Amino acid sequence: MARTPADLVGAQPDPPFEITFDGRRVTALPGQTVAAALWGAGILAWRTTRDGGRPRGAFCGIGQCYDCLATVNGEPNRRACLVPARPGDAVTTQEGHGHDRLTV
Amino acid sequence: MTASPSEPDVRAEPYDLAVVGAGSAGLSGAVTASELGLSVALLDTSSQTGGQFYRHPAPALGAVRPEALHHDWSAFSDLRRRLAASGTAHLPGHHVWSTVREADGTWTVHAVTGADGSGERPVRIRARALLLATGAYERQLPFPGWTLPGVVGAGGAQAMLKSGLVLPGRRIVVAGSGPLLLAVATSLAAAGARVPAVVEAAGYLRYARSPRALVTNPGKAAEALLHGAGLLRHRVPVRVRSAVTEVHGTDRVEAVTVTRLDADWRPVPGTGRRITCDALAVGHGLVPQIELATTVGCTTRRLPDGTLGLALDDLQETSEPGLWAAGETGGVGGAELARTEGELAARAIAARLLGRRSGEGRTGELRRRRDRMRAFAEVMAAAHAPGPGWQDWLTDATDVCRCEEVSAGRVREAVADLGARDARTVKLLTRAGMGWCQGRMCGTAVACLAARDGAAEPPSERRPFAVPVRLSTLAALDGDPAAPADPRPDAS
Q: Which keywords fit this entry according to its UniProt record (chain A) (predicted)?
């Protein structure tokens, strides 16, 4: 019986690479989204809500719910379940609307 | 090819047909129309064809057996082969935000580009006819703790598995209602997860009330048996007439409470049992994604599961001439029905544009198949329609709207104290449904709460912007659709 998803489909991926999440190194496989790479490392939350500051991550998995919004390479509000992971990507927990550095 | 499309023929605008969505319905429609001689543009948000049902890993993940995660993979690989051989212009990474009928009767399709639509290159495509094959998204009902990390959509867990080869946890409870749950549980278990329970709020007995639809759709029964056998093999127990009524944990899922339900989905006091798990995959059926059609005024119909689908004529045309729809947009019915409707629509479109009659043998056969599978879909929808009692598992503190963090208590206050009688008024009073997802996640719940004890109106599925669009994109529209932005796909 297959023990992992990769076993199940007989995956022979291209060489893995690293991204960072809040400075921590995370291994990603080419072809994975940012959300998939984070799930692969056991990370389920990469955003805190605007009002309650509660942790959130991927929910619908298909780009419809916008719960997985992350800050990727300094750009906030990227849907992590859609955006492909690229070598060296710096993913940071998005707080609220992601524009806190703007003093409005 | 699907992953890195060869550069399609760039034809003079407008195309004969623009197809929105490259899942089973859209693929089938696009290749059929192309084979019948039409010039076709096929737009889809994803970099790969297949839609949600045939979602599969990117080529770099090197999946030797992608079919291990799919039912009837050969039907998809056949469509993919035909797409590559056809002259269809496949436009991946195109997020359609609006469709507009121009004064000359043609359609303009507006899209933003890139993996998540944040690319800098907005696109306009013109076409003489339009086929909407935009599929569905998952229906959610809130419950205490459903916003905790580790609670994911059932379809979402399957999507992440199919494309990214990842799981949200090691012990995953699968809950909600609908046939998708069995497929999801089977996939998760086959991929190595422990599934301590599948929790289905309805029973399966309601299918037996419609023996004709069952007998005439033996393929569906075989599919169900396949999932049943898969669950047995992985020792996954199925609990019917039950629901997850609470999720436990501080910053992520640690356990869930599963409670028996009565026939109206009301939790039976004293029957709650705690199940330890580190993730919950939950969903309550699917909702047709039809906002591109409702925005241009297409007539809808209420489906037996309480969602809205497009009202279509016998050849898949909406109430707006020149605008056809296929697949889940007319009511959720699965991949085989979607393929059938896509082909039927394409034949009707070709007949209209080429001035031929379409009443030949193949069209008649497709219509009969469509009608038979639609009948089964309606039985399925009725069997899993949420009962009114689900609201009893909400506490006032439960978030209903995930985006705007609006609790059930605030929605109830808007209804009981402030006089709101419909979802729109609740939204204006509380912001429920006003966030990023535009009410896709909370729409059903808000509509039910607003209806008090009466029958809830289905959410209206009206979103003038189907996806978020930057102001700079709107500002760049010069109002001259005869001079569209470069419609050609990336030459990569």
A: Oxidoreductase
A82 secondary structure, DSSP code = T
Residue B457 CB partners (closer than 8 Å, separation 6+): B422, B423, B447, B451
Domains defined for chain B, CATH in brackets:
15-137+287-358 (3.50.50.60), 140-284 (3.50.50.60), 394-469 (1.10.10.1100)
- Annotated domain spans of chain A: 15-95
Residue with tokens 């209806």: B451
The dotted CATH code for A15-95 is 3.10.20.440
User: Which has the closest alpha carbon to B42: B28, B59, B58, B55?
Assistant: B28
Which residue is listed with tokens 């008090």? B452
Residues of chain B with pLDDT under 70: 1-12, 358-359, 478-492
3-class state of residue A12 by DSSP: coil
Chain B residue at shortest CA distance from A53: B405
Contact (CB, 8 A) for B54 and B183: no
- Please name the helix (run of DSSP H) or strand (run of DSSP E) that holds residue A17, with its range, or none: strand A17-21
Residues of chain A with C-beta less than 8 angstroms from the C-beta of B138: 60, 64
Question: How far from chain centre, in Å, is Cα B116?
Answer: 17
Main-chain dihedrals φ then ψ at residue B87, nearest 5 degrees: -90, 15
DSSP string for residues in B33-61: HHHTT--EEEE-SSSSSSTTTT----GGG
A residues 3-22 closer than 8 Å to B (CB): 3-14
Measured between beta carbons, the chain A residues lying within 8 angstroms of B57 are: 9, 11, 31
Q: Which residues contact B335 (CB under 8 A, 6 or more apart)?
A: B23, B24, B53, B54, B71, B72, B75, B76
The better pLDDT of the pair A103, B179 is held by B179
In tens, the pLDDT along B401-435 reads 999 999 999 999 999 999 999 999 999 999 999 99
Mean pLDDT for chain B overall = 92
Closest CA to B305 of B218, B415, B206, B398: B206
Structure pTM? 0.94
- Tell me how many degrees the CA angle B154-B51-B320 measures, rounded to the nearest 5: 110
In this structure, are residues B189 and B230 in contact, taking their beta carbons and an 8 Å threshold?
Answer: yes
Residue type, B334: G
B386-395 per-position pLDDT tens digit: 999 999 999 9
Max CA pair span of chain A: 56
First CA to last CA across chain B, in angstroms? Answer: 12
Between B45, B68, B441, which is nearest A9 by CB?
Answer: B68
Question: How many whole angstroms separate alpha carbon B382 and alpha carbon B375?
Answer: 11
Distance from CA of B38 to the nearest CA of A (A): 31
Q: Please list, in sequence order, all residues whose beta carbon lies within 8 angstroms of the beta carbon of residue B19, skipping any fewer than 6 positions away.
A: B26, B29, B30, B33, B40, B41, B42, B43, B130, B131, B133
Supply B444's token pair. Answer: 């059903």
- Contact between chains at B149 and A6 (C-beta distance less than 8 A): no
Contacts with B373 (C-beta within 8 Å, 6 or more apart), sequence order = B217, B333, B334, B336, B337, B340
Contact A14 B60 (CB under 8 A): yes
